Amino acid sequence: MRSPIYWHPFFYQAAIKLTFGKSFISRYEKLAKHIPENSNLLELCMGDAYLFLNYLKPKNINYTCVDVNSTFVNAAKKKGLNALQLNIETDEIAKADYVLMQGSLCYFIPNEKHIIQKLLDACNKQLIISENIENISNSDSKLKSYLAEKFSDAGVGQSKIKFTKEFIENTFSDFKSQIKVWEVSPNNKEIIIVLSKH
Ligand SMILES: C[S@@+](CC[C@H](N)C(=O)[O-])C[C@H]1O[C@@H](n2cnc3c(N)ncnc32)[C@H](O)[C@@H]1O
Prior knowledge:
The chain is of the alpha/beta class and 198 residues long. The chain is built from 7 helices and 7 strands. The protein has helices spanning 9-20, 24-32, 50-56, 70-78, 112-122, 142-150, 165-172, and strands spanning 40-44, 62-67, 82-85, 96-102, 123-132, 179-184, 190-196. A 7-stranded mixed beta sheet has the order 3-2-1-4-5-7-6.
């Protein structure tokens, strides 16, 4: 069953604010720096589209976003965004110069490498991925871990496990030659990886 945090962007945003606490703003600020002005951007799994609405809008970006959750897609449309409802595991993805995925690669385990390749195929210039690498579903507390997994169900099944730094290193080892940016946050909780087409 879809977790309550995916019932409305408002609930989702509250959960993210609670999870990230003091690093909520830097989560977006750091990522926004990697998206150039006047670019053509496809954001996958945009959720509440907080990054675009609060950080990218002034950059005159030609923006399309995709999510499997119809509530999020409709909410984005109401805000005037070009939003599409797609399951990126099974549906075709249109091409864009820059393709972005924030905090969502963990949903595709154990097919994460296949998804990275699919996103690379969809971008003309760069693929930008950010991921949480120290997540409460990796917590030593069994209860915390259980709840985190239950709340991760976006409607297509809950994310099985989350990434650790080692898991991320292993996942991207197949794409080594394309990695242009490997940026771990000072608190070791997040990573931004930029893969280049050329
Ligand atoms: C943890 S949220 C991330 C939202 C936003 N990018 C952020 O970082 O705040 C994961 C998002 O991935 C979406 N999602 C999960 N599986 C998907 C799939 N197979 N295709 C498209 N979107 C999917 C969910 O609906 C949800 O909005």
